[in-house]
C-alpha cells in the first residue's frame, strides 16, 4: 500500500492532560499561572498570525461572564479557550474562516479544531437533554453536568463526535466523485454521509454510495480518518470496489457525479489549467483520499 498523506486537522502537539480534568485545584493552579494563554477567536473563527500559527493572548481578554476550558499544555504552558456562547451555524464556513484554514499549519489547525468543537458544543448544550434543566461546565471545560442545585437530575454530558464515512468507489481505473449544489463552482469531491445507528463503517459506505449515486460496491477498505470541526465529526475515509459504472443520481443530495481517471485526479490535485474539476482543499481528508488513490496507481 502506498504511503498515506497526513490528513489535515491532525498532529496537534497539545497535551490534553485528561487525568487532571477532575482536579479543580490543578485547574485553578493553571488558571493562575503567569504563562497561561487564551486562544483568540472571532466567534468560531481563529485569529491567525502571518506565519500560519494560532494567536494566543492574556486570560484577561476573556469574557468575565464566561467559563474557561483548559485545552491542555503546549510547551508545558497551560492553554485555555473561552466558552462564551457563540450564535453561528457551526456547519458553515465564511470567507474569513476559509482564509484562516488555508493559512494555518496542519498542527495548529488540529489544536484549533479541538477548541472550536468545545466552544460550539457548549454553546448548543446549555440544557440537559434528559430533563431540560440548565447544565453547568465541569471537568475543566470538557463536560457539562445537569445542576442538581437548580432542580436538575445530575446527568453528565460529554462532547460528542459524529462518525461520517467519506469514500471513493473504484471501477476499472476510475473513481466516482460528485458535487453538492452549495459548493463552489466546479468543485468535486468524494461522496460522504453519516453512519447511522446500528451500522458498521462498511455498511455505511455501501449504503451511502447506493443511495446517492446508485452504485453497488463491495470490498470496502479503510484508508485514514480525520476530525472535522464543522461542527464535530470524525471523517472515516474508505475505498470500495464498484460492480459497474452506472450512475443513478439522487438529485436532492448531489448536483452531478462523474468517473475520474488518474490523469483527471492528478490534474485536479495539481490545480492544472486543464483540470476537469476543482479539487477539495488540502486540509480536507477528501484531498488525502484522492492523493492516496492516485499514488496507488
Could you walk me through the main structural features you see in this protein, from its secondary elements to its overall organization?
- This protein has 297 residues and is an alpha+beta fold.
- The chain has three domains: 123 residues, no CATH class; 36 residues, no CATH class; 135 residues, Nucleoside Triphosphate Pyrophosphohydrolase, CATH 3.90.79.
- The protein contains six helices and 15 strands.
- The strands form four sheets. Strands 10, 11, 12, 13, 14 and 15 form a six-stranded mixed β-sheet that branches.
- The N and C termini lie close together (10 Å).
- The mean pLDDT is 96.
Strand content: 25-35%
* Biggest sheet features: 6 strands, mixed
Q: Low-confidence spans: pLDDT under 50, at least 5 residues?
A: none
CATH class of the largest domain: Alpha Beta
Structural class determined from secondary elements: alpha+beta
Summarize this structure briefly.
With 297 residues, the protein is α+β, with helices and mostly antiparallel strands. The chain is built from six helices and 15 strands. It folds into three domains: 1-123, no CATH class; 125-160, no CATH class; 162-296, Nucleoside Triphosphate Pyrophosphohydrolase.
Amino acid at each position: 500500500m502506498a504511503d498515506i498523506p497526513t490528513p489535515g486537522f491532525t498532529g496537534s502537539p497539545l497535551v490534553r492532560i485528561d487525568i487532571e480534568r477532575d482536579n479543580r485545584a490543578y485547574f485553578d493552579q493553571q488558571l493562575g499561572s503567569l504563562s497561561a494563554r487564551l486562544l483568540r477567536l472571532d466567534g468560531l473563527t481563529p485569529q491567525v498570525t502571518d506565519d500560519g500559527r494560532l494567536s494566543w493572548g492574556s486570560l484577561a481578554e476573556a469574557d468575565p461572564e464566561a467559563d474557561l476550558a483548559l485545552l491542555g499544555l503546549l510547551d508545558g504552558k497551560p492553554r485555555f479557550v473561552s466558552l462564551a456562547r457563540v450564535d453561528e451555524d457551526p456547519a458553515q464556513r465564511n470567507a474569513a474562516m476559509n482564509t484562516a484554514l488555508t493559512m494555518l499549519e496542519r498542527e495548529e489547525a488540529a489544536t484549533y479544531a479541538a477548541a472550536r468543537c468545545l466552544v460550539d458544543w457548549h454553546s448548543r448544550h446549555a440544557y440537559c437533554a434528559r430533563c431540560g434543566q440548565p447544565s453547568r461546565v465541569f471537568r475543566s471545560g470538557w463536560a457539562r453536568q445537569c445542576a442538581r442545585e437548580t432542580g436538575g437530575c445530575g446527568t453528565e454530558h460529554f462532547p460528542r463526535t459524529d462518525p461520517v464515512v467519506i469514500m471513493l468507489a473504484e471501477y476499472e481505473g476510475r473513481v466516482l466523485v460528485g458535487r453538492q449544489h452549495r459548493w463552489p463552482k466546479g468543485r468535486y469531491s468524494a461522496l460522504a454521509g453519516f453512519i447511522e445507528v446500528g451500522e458498521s463503517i462498511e455498511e455505511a459506505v455501501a449504503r451511502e454510495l447506493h443511495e446517492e449515486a446508485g452504485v453497488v460496491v463491495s470490498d470496502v477498505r479503510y484508508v485514514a480518518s480525520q476530525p472535522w470541526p464543522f461542527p464535530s465529526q470524525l471523517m472515516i475515509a474508505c475505498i470500495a470496489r464498484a460492480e459497474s459504472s452506472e450512475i443513478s443520481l439522487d438529485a436532492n443530495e448531489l448536483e452531478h457525479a462523474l468517473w475520474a481517471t488518474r490523469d483527471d485526479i492528478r490534474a485536479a490535485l495539481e490545480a492544472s489549467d486543464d483540470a476537469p474539476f476543482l479539487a477539495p482543499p488540502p486540509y480536507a481528508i477528501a484531498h488525502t483520499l484522492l492523493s492516496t488513490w492516485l499514488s496507488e496507481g
